C-alpha cells in the first residue's frame, strides 16, 4: 500500500513538472518572438506612426480569425489613448460593412500569412477609394504585403503551439506591435494623464484618476471643533462624523490642526481639563480639491494616515470635505 501511494505521488509530481515545463516553454517561445520584434522595428514603424498621427478621420482595424480577435483589442487601445478607432470584421465588410470605411480613414489590417481571402474585398475597396493601408503581416510577398502602403513585417518566429500551428507567438507579436503603435502615437501627441482620464471614467482606472471631490461628499457638515472646544465636544463631533477624526479651526474658521482617536486615547488623563488646541496635531496634511484619487492614496500611505481633509484649491486651510482611505479603495 505504501509503495502504491509513493508511486502515485511520484507520478503526480512528474505530471506537475511536465505541465510547468509546457507552460514555461510556451511563454519563452513567445518572449523570443517579442525580442525578435524589437530588433525588427525600422523606419516602416516610424512611417506608420506618422500616418496614424495625420489621419483625418479614424483608424479602422480589421482581421480574421485570431488576428481579428487581436485587432479588436488594438482598436480598443487606440481609442483609449486618443486615436479615434474601431474594429471592422473582415468577413462582414464584404457584406455591406464596407460603407463604414470612407476617404480620410486609415486601414490597419492584420494577417499572419497575408493570404486570407476575406481581406481581398477590403484591399480592393481601399485602393479604389484612396484609403491608405498599414499591413501587419509575416510574408511580404503575400497579397496583403504587396498591397500595403506601409508594411510592418512580423519576424519569422515559431508558434508556441507544440505542433507549431495554433496562432500563439504570431498573435502575441501582433498585440505588442499594436500597443507599440498606439503608445508611440499617444506620446507624439503629448497626451497627459488628464487627457486619458476623460476616456476612462469607469472601473478601477476611472476611480484612481478621478478627482477626489468626485469621490467624497462635498458640502456635507464636517466634523470641526473650535480651538478652545472641551473634550466632550470633540468626542461628540468625532462620533457624529464617523471618520475617526475632528478638524480644529481657529477664530477665522481656518483649519489649524486635527484630532484623531489616537490623540484622544493619549490625552485620556486630561479629559476634564484639555481643550482641542492642547491635544491636536498641528499643520495637518490636506489635499486641494481636484487632486487625483491615486495621488491622495499615495500621500496617505506615505504619511501612514487613514483620513485627511480636502480643501479649497487656493486655500489649504479651508476644508470642504473629508476623505477616508476606505472611501477611496474599491
UniProtKB/TrEMBL annotation:
Catalytic activity, EC: 5.3.1.13
Pfam families xref list: CBS (PF00571), SIS (PF01380)
Molecular function as annotated in GO: arabinose-5-phosphate isomerase activity
SUPFAM superfamilies in UniProt: CBS-domain pair (SSF54631), SIS domain (SSF53697)
Residues of the CBS domain: 218-277, 280-330
Coiled coil (UniProt feature): none
Domain SIS: 48-191
Similarity comment text for this entry: Belongs to the SIS family. GutQ/KpsF subfamily.
Protein name: Arabinose-5-phosphate isomerase
Amino acid at each position: 500500500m505504501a509503495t502504491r501511494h509513493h508511486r502515485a505521488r511520484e507520478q503526480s509530481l512528474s505530471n506537475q513538472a511536465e505541465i510547468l515545463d509546457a507552460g514555461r516553454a510556451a511563454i519563452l517561445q513567445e518572449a523570443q518572438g517579442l525580442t525578435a520584434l524589437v530588433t525588427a522595428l525600422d523606419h516602416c514603424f516610424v512611417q506608420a506612426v506618422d500616418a496614424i498621427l495625420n489621419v483625418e478621420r479614424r483608424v479602422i482595424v480589421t482581421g480574421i480569425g485570431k488576428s481579428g480577435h487581436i485587432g479588436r483589442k488594438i482598436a480598443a487601445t487606440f481609442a483609449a489613448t486618443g486615436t479615434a478607432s474601431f474594429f471592422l470584421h473582415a468577413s462582414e465588410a464584404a457584406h455591406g460593412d464596407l460603407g463604414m470605411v470612407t476617404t480620410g480613414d486609415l486601414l490597419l489590417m492584420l494577417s499572419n500569412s497575408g493570404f486570407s481571402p476575406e481581406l481581398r474585398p477590403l484591399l480592393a475597396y481601399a485602393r479604389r477609394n484612396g484609403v491608405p493601408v498599414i499591413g501587419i503581416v509575416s510574408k511580404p510577398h503575400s497579397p496583403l504585403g504587396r498591397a500595403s502602403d506601409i508594411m510592418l513585417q512580423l519576424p519569422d518566429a515559431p508558434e508556441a503551439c507544440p505542433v507549431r500551428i495554433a496562432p500563439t507567438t504570431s498573435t502575441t507579436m501582433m498585440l505588442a506591435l499594436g500597443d507599440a503603435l498606439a503608445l508611440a502615437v499617444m506620446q507624439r501627441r503629448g497626451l497627459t494623464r488628464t487627457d486619458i482620464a476623460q476616456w476612462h471614467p469607469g472601473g478601477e482606472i476611472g476611480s484612481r484618476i478621478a478627482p477626489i471631490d468626485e469621490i467624497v461628499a462635498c458640502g456635507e457638515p464636517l466634523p470641526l471643533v473650535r480651538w478652545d472646544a472641551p473634550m466632550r465636544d470633540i468626542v461628540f463631533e468625532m462620533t457624529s462624523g464617523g471618520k475617526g477624526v475632528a478638524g480644529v479651526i481657529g477664530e477665522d474658521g481656518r483649519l489649524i490642526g486635527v484630532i484623531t482617536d489616537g490623540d484622544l486615547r493619549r490625552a485620556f488623563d486630561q479629559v476634564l481639563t484639555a481643550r482641542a488646541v492642547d491635544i491636536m496635531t498641528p499643520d495637518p496634511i490636506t489635499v486641494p480639491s481636484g487632486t487625483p484619487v491615486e495621488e491622495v492614496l499615495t500621500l496617505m500611505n506615505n504619511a501612514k494616515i487613514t483620513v485627511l481633509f480636502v480643501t479649497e484649491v487656493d486655500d489649504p486651510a479651508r476644508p470642504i470635505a473629508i476623505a477616508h482611505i476606505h472611501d477611496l479603495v474599491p
